Amino acid sequence: MRPSGRSDRSDSPARLKPRAGKTRRRVLVVDDDRDLRDLLAAVLSSAGYEVLTAENGAAALSVLRTVLPDLIVLDLMMPVMNGWQFREAQMALPDYARIPVVCLSGHHAARHQANSLGISACVVKPFEIDDLITVVGRMLPD
């Protein structure tokens, strides 16, 4: 599933405001779709974030053992360890539980499921890249 980003619009306001001069906030993108993961990493990086990636929940937990991000963008439906299982493991560990999560899912009940997992923000696939950048910016204010 690919986002319906506006790649042809170089004047996109969400991408014109890099976080220059500030400490780069870390965002962990967890999604099994490599193309989407790479696209999100590139877009978030160009918006001024330091981006870490993982292909599933188990890989994300491995990342968390070495570095704690400021925000996690989490797909729910993944092999190995899905988003629900990851969120359960995350909430069981105090250092990880404090990290806010943005749900990223194409599931028809994604918003409801995000709420049930204690996730306050959800971006439903397909989505506009600018919408995700806006949500990330709202979750990580300057």
Summarize the structure.
The chain is α/β, with parallel strands linked by helices.
β-strand amount: 15-25%
Q: What is the typical, i.e. mean, pLDDT?
A: 84
Instruction: Tell me roughly what share of residues is in helical segments.
Output: 25-40%
The CATH H-level superfamily is: Response regulator
CATH topology: Rossmann fold
The number of helices is 6
Number of E-state strands: 5
**Secondary-structure element pattern, one letter each:** EHEHEHHEHEH
User: What is the CATH class name?
Assistant: Alpha Beta
Enumerate the strands of the largest sheet in spatial order, edge to edge or round the barrel.
2-1-3-4-5
Question: Which of globular, elongated, flat, extended, rod-shaped describes the shape?
Answer: globular
Secondary-structure-derived class: alpha/beta
CATH architecture: 3-Layer(aba) Sandwich
For the terminal residues, how far apart are their CA atoms?
31 Å
The total number of structural domains is 1
- Rg (CA only): 14 Å
Largest sheet: 5 strands, parallel
**Poorly predicted runs:** 1-19
Structure commentary:
With 142 residues, the chain is an alpha/beta fold. It has one domain (23-139): Response regulator (Rossmann fold, 3-Layer(aba) Sandwich). It is 38% helix and 17% strand. The chain has helices spanning 34-46, 57-66, 83-91, 94-97, 110-116, 129-139, and strands at residues 26-30, 50-54, 71-75, 101-105, 121-124. It has a five-stranded parallel β-sheet with strand order 2-1-3-4-5, with helices on both faces. Helix 1 (34-46) links the parallel strand 1 (26-30) and strand 2 (50-54). The radius of gyration is 14 Å and the shape is globular.
